[in-house]
Amino acid sequence: MKIVYRAENIIDANLVKGALAQEGITAFVSGEYLTGAIGELPAWNLVAVMVADLDVERALPVAQAIDAALRQERDRPDACAGDALPA
């Protein structure tokens, strides 16, 4: 398995996982249970979305599109939660 997306949180990771599922790509969110240990562990690079090696080429553009939409939304001064979901 290969990492196609490093998430800031489990919500973003599951958005990517859901988008991949819509494309017929099985994905796994690793580290989602580690976020409960924040305070004892460094709070970065804990959550990642992984796919099978043979799905990496198809999965990367999907993950990158979601990431771009999330980053663009976070950079908006008037951003509201949930607005970044791609159509």
- Separation of the first and last Cα atoms: 28 Å
Number of helices: 2
CATH class descriptor name: Alpha Beta
Q: What is the rounded Rg?
A: 13 Å
Number of domains: 1
Kindly state the mean pLDDT as a whole number? 83
N to C succession of SSEs = EHEEH
Beta-sheet strand percentage? 15-25%
Helix content: 25-40%
State the major sheet: 3 strands, antiparallel
Annotated CATH topology: Alpha-Beta Plaits
Pick out the low-confidence regions. none
Number of strands: 3
Strand order of the largest sheet: 1-3-2
The coarse silhouette is globular
In CATH, the architecture is 2-Layer Sandwich
Structural class call reads: alpha+beta
